[in-house]
Amino acid sequence: CIPGYRKLWEAAVAHGFDCSKGRVQRLLQSVGYRSKSGKRRYTSRAKIEGTIKASNLLRRQFNVDTANTVWVSDITQVRCKDGWQYLCVILDLYSRKVVGWVTSRINNAELVIKTLRKAWSARKPDGANLLFHSDQGAQYVAKETVKWLTNRGVTVSMSR
Questions:
Q1: What are the residue ranges spanned by the domains of the chain?
Q2: Half-sphere exposure of 151 (CA within 13 A, CB side)
Q3: Per-residue pLDDT tens for 135-146?
Q4: What architecture does CATH give domain 47-158?
Q5: pLDDT tens string 58-73
Q6: What are the DSSP calls for the chain, one per residue?
């Protein structure tokens, strides 16, 4: 079984090659490779193995009285000269300041964990008193991300 162009692109980027998904796809097509789509299976997000769903504990209460008690995070993509970059940012709701940010060419759970590590080393919060809030993106509901947070006693909150 030959992997698709997306997985081949991820592997190429991980090994230091500078290329786009489109270039990998064109190269594969130039040697006669054609992908075959399988039957699409519809499933709810809660049933996807390896993901964890959390309640919305923040409930739009954006005014916080103490630093390092509520952190919020999101990921955005930025078009650059050499392709897309993904930016993960963590804000402290008390000060509304960025406590950690990381960019990557690949949008995955490792991007979130790297950002959490950076914020954690900069702020050194008490995990038992910290609420981490995000959306239910695949990077945030991934087992690795939730495990990293729960190992430090952080309460996880996710909006719909």
A1: 1-40, 47-158
A2: 10
A3: 999 999 999 999
A4: 2-Layer Sandwich (3.30)
A5: 878 788 899 999 999 9
A6: -PPPHHHHHHHHHHTT----HHHHHHHHHHTT------------GGGSTTB------STT----SSTTSEEEEEEEEEEETTEEEEEEEEEETTTTEEEEEEEESS-SHHHHHHHHHHHHHHH---GGG-EEEE---HHHHBHHHHHHHHHTTPEEEE--
